[in-house]
Amino acid sequence: INLFFPSLQGKPRPKIIWMKDGQTLESKDVGIRNSTSDTILFIRKAELHHSGAYEVTLQIENMTDKVAITMQIIDKPGPPQNIKLVDVWGFNAALEWTPPQDDGNAQILGYTVQKADKKTMEWYTVFDHYRRTNCVVSDLIMGNEYFFRIFSENLCGLSETAATTKNPAYIQKTGTTYKPPSYKEHDFSEPPKFTHPLVNRSVIAGYNATLSCAVRGIPKPKIFWYKNNMDLSGDAKYRMFSKQGVLTLEIRKPTPFDGGCYTCKAVNECGEAEIECRLDVRGNH
C-alpha cells in the first residue's frame, strides 16, 4: 500500500512528519520516502493493525499544513461459530449459528449455506448472501443423510474455512407427519447507520476528487448528497456511486469554488442518518 502526496511546496524545504492515531510513526514495517516534491508512505505487507488515522504534517519554521486520511485494512472473515442442527422433520432441517469471531475488520454481508449427501460428500449451495443466522433447508431426499456447512462473507469474499455440522441429519422414511415448531418471524429492519465516516480532505484544483463513507440499514437506504445544504442530484459535475454499502461522491476537476461542507444523508422507512466533512480545494500553482 502506498499513500502518495505530490506537489509539496514551501521554502526552505519543509520538515515532513507522519503520524498514525496521534503517534509518530516508528513501525519497522512502514517505510517513508521523501523528495523535494513529494512524500510517500509505503507498507509492503498490509495487515489489519495498519488500519487507522494517518496524518502528514509539513512544517516550515512556525508554519504548518496538514493532510489526514483514514485507512481501513480488511481481510476475509473467519468461519461462523456454534453451528447447530436444531431440528429435522419431513424433508427439512433447521440450522442455527452465530457470527464469526473474526469479521476481517469489515461488516459481515451474509452467509453461504451448503449441503452434502453423506454418500457422495459433494457440496451444493442452498443459500448465498444469506443475512440471517438461522435457516431451514428443504427438499431433502427421504432415506438420505446430510451434512451442512456455512461460510461467512464480507467485502473481501468468503471465509477460507466453513463451520460444518458434526452429525448428519437423517431424513426418515416413515410416513409419520411431524409438525415443526413455529418460529416467530424476526424483524431485521434497522435505521441507517454510518459505519465509516466522511473524512475532511484537502485536494488540488483540476484533479478529480472523491469523498467516501460506508452505511448500513435494512431495508437498503436511499442516499442523498449535499454541498452547503444544496442537493447535488442532477448536477453533472458530481457522480455518485453505491456498492455493497460503500458510498462515493466523485467531484470532477474541482475548483476552489467547490470547497465547502459536504453532507451524505441516508434514509429508509426506519429512520435517517447523516454525516458531513469539509473539502478544501487548493490552487495548482
From TrEMBL:
GO terms classed as biological process: sarcomere organization; ventricular cardiac muscle tissue morphogenesis
InterPro entries per UniProt: FN3_dom, FN3_sf, Ig-like_dom, Ig-like_dom_sf, Ig-like_fold, Ig_I-set, Ig_sub, Ig_sub2
PROSITE patterns according to UniProt: FN3, IG_LIKE
Residues of the Ig-like domain: 192-276
Molecular function GO terms recorded: myosin heavy chain binding
Residue ranges of domain Fibronectin type-III in the record: 79-174
Keywords (A to Z) from UniProt: Immunoglobulin domain, Repeat
Residue intervals passing through the bilayer: none
Keyword Cell cycle annotated: no
Family to which this protein belongs: Belongs to the immunoglobulin superfamily. MyBP family.
Name of the protein described by the UniProt record: MYPC3 protein
Organism name: Podargus strigoides
Source organism phylogeny: Eukaryota, Metazoa, Chordata, Craniata, Vertebrata
